[in-house]
């Protein structure tokens, strides 16, 4: 017989404090929803636009059956001073942080030769440098939360674009793709840096999930129906796909998973031939 003493609690987040950047819509809102429904005590969400943050907080706090609460803090996580202000505000409410989800991201598409420098800077500042500083400045609070048997968690939302060359040409997204490769590798570096401090770090790489960020590219590539046909699972991602994957990485059951990239794309990155 095999004894699995933790079995009933693999995904139980009771008492956990979490923060999700870009939590006002899209994948970040799905993730914040999953954390609250998983039992988290406090879920901070942040994004630049205050009305969007307030609206998401109202939606989250109206979720049926939750015991925790969502708290919104507006800020730009591409800017180090805003990240520091975020840390300071979180500290006034909670003394620890168990789960940090670096989800906010930006993309830019256009032809290679005429790419404006500001576009590369915007993408790298948010998707790479901002994530580095976010984790760095939250490390003391993450360390307070973590213990050898229950490490705190960092999850970086990367992309399948970080392990393939998805789009070149007129609508090329070269710097986005490069920034996501860096984000995935940042998680691996953090896994080794922070593991001894009782903090794990992993990345999660989604394929296409309809959202404000993805919708323009989805249309350029022929629309949702076209993309569904080229996916081995014959569909795009849905909110439950991302919620379940995050719960696996941040729940008690995932506590020995460190430095992996979990791809959630229905297998689309592998499908080079026509189905
Ligand atoms: N959707 C997909 O198909 C897909 C696929 C692969 C990877 N991803 C990744 O998943 C993550 C979320 O994407 P999404 O599709 O959910 O995008 P989205 O719907 O556009 O949401 C982006 C969120 O990030 C916030 N945000 C943007 N810039 C910010 C900044 N500088 N500081 C703080 N918050 C900021 C936005 O709010 P404000 O505008 O108010 O700041 C919003 O809450 C990104 O990292 C993206 O690269 C998405």
Automatic annotation (TrEMBL):
A Pfam family: adh_short_C2
Signal peptide: none
UniProt keywords, alphabetically: Coiled coil, NADP, Oxidoreductase
Residue runs in coiled coils: 76-103
InterPro entries, per database record: NAD(P)-bd_dom_sf, Sc_DH/Rdtase_CS, SDR_fam, Sec_Metab_Biosynth_SDR
Keyword Flavoprotein in annotation: no
Family: Belongs to the short-chain dehydrogenases/reductases (SDR) family.
Name of the protein in question: NAD(P)-binding protein
Organismal lineage: Eukaryota, Fungi, Dikarya, Ascomycota, Pezizomycotina
């Amino acid at each position: 017989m095999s004894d699995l003493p933790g079995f009933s609690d693999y995904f139980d987040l009771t008492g956990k404090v979490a923060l999700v950047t870009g939590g006002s819509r899209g994948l970040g809102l799905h993730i914040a929803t999953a954390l609250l429904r998983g039992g988290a005590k406090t879920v901070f969400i942040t994004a630049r636009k205050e009305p969007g943050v307030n609206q998401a907080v109202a939606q989250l706090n109206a979720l049926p059956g939750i015991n925790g609460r969502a708290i919104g803090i507006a800020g730009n996580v591409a800017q180090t001073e805003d990240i520091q202000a975020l840390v300071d505000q979180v500290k006034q409410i909670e003394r620890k942080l168990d789960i940090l989800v670096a989800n906010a991201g930006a993309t830019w598409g256009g032809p290679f030769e005429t790419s404006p420098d500001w576009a590369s800077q915007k993408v790298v500042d948010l998707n790479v440098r901002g994530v580095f500083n976010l984790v760095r400045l939250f490390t003391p609070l993450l360390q307070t939360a973590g213990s050898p048997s229950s490490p705190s968690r960092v999850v970086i939302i990367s992309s399948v674009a970080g392990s393939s060359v998805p789009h070149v040409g007129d609508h090329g997204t070269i710097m986005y793709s490069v920034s996501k490769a860096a984000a995935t590798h940042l998680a691996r570096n953090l896994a080794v840096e922070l593991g001894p401090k009782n903090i794990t770090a992993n990345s999660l790489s989604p394929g296409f999930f309809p959202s404000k960020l993805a919708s323009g590219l989805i249309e350029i590539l022929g629309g949702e129906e076209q993309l569904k046909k080229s996916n081995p699972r014959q569909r795009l991602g849905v909110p439950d796909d991302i919620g379940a994957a995050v719960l696996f990485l941040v729940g008690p059951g995932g506590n020995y998973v460190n430095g992996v990239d979990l791809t959630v794309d229905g297998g689309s990155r592998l499908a080079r031939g026509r189905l």
